[in-house]
Write a structure and sequence with these properties.
With 239 residues, this protein is of the alpha/beta class. The protein is 26% helix and 10% strand. Strand 3, helix 4 (156-165) and strand 4 (170-174) form a beta-alpha-beta unit.
Length: 239
């Protein structure tokens, strides 16, 4: 056997550069750096539309708040008319002590009047198709009568609705230039109503319809004159 010289290089044990101990092969990893991507990844791209998106969201929130706010307000406070129908806080009251009889006209501070000096003859109970003389109607109030006045232009159906709610001790009549479509009055108390269907009418009648505020509580409108102007003397004279 011939000895192998120590200075002979084995090509299978040399690398590409001839460095000892390196192995050459096709599967060796490429040591060159990968080429840079032509565009940055999508996650790294600047959000050029972000201000526009934020502005759109803010506008939507403002618009939504503007639309929702009235609904929330109505849910909390309720519709104004419905809220008024829940109580009698708008009832006006007065302390009226003068109930003297007079033949003349009286200048009343309320419209319609809610008490004071009045005619010696009162009006008979019921529904009147024309305005009544207020001095005679005030005599009814002294008897604990409920007086419902309404706009003359109120529809037939609305007048019928009011007549259905009129107490037995009550009179009802049209009146020009009312402060509201319907006004309900007893001695010393009055409420302006939005119409014949105002639910506060029922509440008012429950509270005041018994006539307890009147000086002559327990007397009624029965036996009065049927003449709207009080011109016909009847059983109520000087009562």
């Amino acid at each position: 056997m011939t000895d192998r010289p120590d200075d002979v290089d084995d090509p299978h044990l040399s690398g590409p550069t001839g460095a000892p101990g390196s192995v050459q092969g096709t599967d060796a990893p490429d040591a060159r750096p990968a080429p840079a991507a032509a565009y940055p990844p999508a996650a790294q791209q600047p959000h050029r539309n972000l201000p526009l998106v934020l502005a759109s969201v803010a506008s939507a929130l403002v618009l939504g708040a503007a639309l929702v706010a009235p609904l929330v307000d109505r849910a909390i406070r309720g519709d104004e008319r419905a809220q008024r129908a829940l109580d009698l806080t708008l009832v006006e009251t007065w302390e009226i002590t003068d109930g003297t009889h007079t033949e003349g006209d009286v200048d009343y501070p309320q419209d319609p009047p809610a008490g004071g000096p009045h005619a010696p003859i009162w009006l008979d109970c019921g529904v009147y198709d024309e305005p009544v003389r207020e001095e005679n109607a005030v005599h009814d109030l002294e008897h604990g009568t409920v007086w419902i006045t309404h706009d003359p232009d109120l529809s037939d159906s609305d007048r019928a609705l009011l007549a259905e709610q009129l107490p037995a001790n009550g009179i009802m009549s049209p009146r020009e230039d009312l402060p509201s479509p319907v006004v309900v009055t007893v001695w010393g108390a009055q409420l302006h109503l939005d119409g014949a269907d105002d639910r506060r009418l029922g509440l008012f009648l429950e509270e005041y319809g018994d006539g307890h505020t009147a000086p002559e509580f327990g007397v009624s409108c029965r036996g009065g004159t049927p003449d709207p102007q009080g011109g016909l003397p009847g059983a109520g004279t000087n009562a």
